[in-house]
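Sample pair:
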Amino acid sequence: MAIDQETKERARELYVFDGLTLEQVAKETGVPESTVKRWSADEGWTDERREHKATLADIRRNTLQLRKAFVAKAMGSLDPQDVYAAVRLEALAQRGQKKEEQVQVDVDRPKLFIEDMEFIASTLKEIDPEGLKILARSFDEIVTRWKAQNEKAA
């Protein structure tokens, strides 16, 4: 039985990147398990899979370090733009984690807005009470602009 290169590459992807077992790959591709095992051994799929997992772990670790550094910068500078950017970054990260846990997530944009504003207000209350007063004076305008922006997106 001749097997085309495309099927062989698909088998490799299923094993290396999708994390299927060799037995599952054989069932998925319709290729005999012994053939899949031979391909894996001949071409070093196990090492490639291990390297792929290590790379993903490095990316996650580096992303967390980057987020930590960004939040530390925002806390150190107390620049409103840095603080806002850090809050949004964390909100996006949290949504990303939730999406990994759930295939379909409905985003409650008003709730997210309120949560962001509560975080900003509590942070300003602790570190810059004058900034909180400025936020309070501008709150109605912020809400109005947010509503207008999100009406367009809907």
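DSSP finds seven helices and no strands in the chain.
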